[in-house]
UniProtKB/TrEMBL annotation:
It holds the Pfam family Glyoxalase. This is VOC family protein. Residues 8-123, 141-259 form the VOC domain. SUPFAM superfamilies: Glyoxalase/Bleomycin resistance protein/Dihydroxybiphenyl dioxygenase. It comes from Paractinoplanes globisporus. InterPro entries: Glyas_Bleomycin-R_OHBP_Dase, Glyas_Fos-R_dOase_dom, GlyoxalaseI/FosfomycinResist, VOC_core.
């Protein structure tokens, strides 16, 4: 089996029509810090993360997921992955080269099987970050990204075959079959998950908090401010992490989480969890029930950026 060359998740990039409203939400309400801003583009960092930014916002006529970015260890690994993908017939958007985004580095972009733009990079300059203190309800880092696919089996196979992601667990329903696959590229239970959905779209982006207290403080801050809650607070079975899902001003689902499980990859065996069991959805029993309304919010709008590379 070919070696795994992707090491971790870096950032998620969103295009939004109402840029000012989104910028206000992600900085003032969600707790990210503007690292660099320019006309119609902002790179927003998480306080505890060495990544240059965790979210990039771009002003655009239509809402879309611009890209998902992952890290690699070395430029040689970037080159090797690009060569592997090209040899397998994957469409490259750019060839490996010096990057122009904050922190520089060396990377390339390609389309996955659903037409999302994915970026892989190495040697991005480490950002000066800090320890998030007790009681601070701001994100430590971007934890994971979940995407919707109308053909999730093929999308899971793409990430397993071409990028060497490993399956951690699967959620299923007795009437609907397999519904969500949790994929990892390091010891964390998942940095990417793929959900069955009616169209290609972002399902949600999740941000790690310092601990349970900070997670609950952040959840409470958003509730008090009237931000629309989708689901939570609770604790999932798969990944054993906490969850509170909210909608950003453009209807993207974003999550506060903490305590995502770390696995012994040599001994881990994937579970098949039946999420009609309330304990699977929420071990605590504190969240609102998972129902069709909650699921529909996470379907999001159809992504207008399929097989169209972002301009930046």
């Amino acid at each position: 089996m070919k070696e795994r060359l992707i090491t971790h998740l870096r950032h998620v990039d969103l295009a939004v029509p109402d840029y000012d409203k989104q910028f206000e939400f992600y900085t003032t309400m969600w707790g990210l810090t503007p690292a660099i801003t320019d006309e119609g583009i902002a790179f927003l960092a998480a306080a505890g993360s060495p990544e240059q930014y965790s979210v990039r916002l771009r002003r655009a006529a239509e809402k879309r997921l611009d890209l998902i970015a992952f890290g690699a260890s070395t430029p040689d690994d970037v080159d090797a992955l690009a060569e592997r993908l090209a040899a397998d017939g994957v469409q490259l958007v750019t060839s490996p080269s010096k990057m122009q985004t904050p922190g520089g580095g060396y990377g390339f972009r390609f389309f996955d099987n659903d037409g999302r733009t994915v970026e892989v990079s190495a040697e991005v300059e480490v950002r000066a970050h800090r320890k998030v203190e007790a009681g601070e309800s701001v994100p430590v880092k971007l934890s994971h990204v979940v995407i919707n696919s109308p053909n999730p089996e093929a999308t899971v196979a793409f990430y397993e075959r071409h990028l060497r992601f490993a399956l951690s667990d699967t959620l299923m329903h007795p009437r609907m079959g397999s519904m969500m696959w949790f994929l990892r590229t390091n010891r964390f239970h998942h940095s990417l998950a793929i959900a069955r959905g009616p169209h290609v779209a972002l399902h949600h982006a999740s941000f790690e908090m310092r601990g349970i207290d900070e997670y609950m403080r952040g959840t409470g801050r958003l509730l008090r401010a009237g931000v629309e809650k989708v689901w939570g607070p609770g604790r999932h079975m798969a990944g054993n992490n906490t969850f509170s899902y909210f909608l950003d001003p453009h209807g993207n689902t974003v999550e506060y989480t903490t305590e995502l499980e770390q696995l012994d990859e040599d001994t881990w065996h994937p579970h098949l969890y039946d999420f009609s069991d309330p304990m699977v959805s929420d071990q605590w029993g504190t969240a609102n029930p998972m129902n069709e309304l909650v699921a529909r919010q996470s379907f999001n709008d159809p992504d207008r950026g399929v097989f169209v590379a972002p301009p930046v």
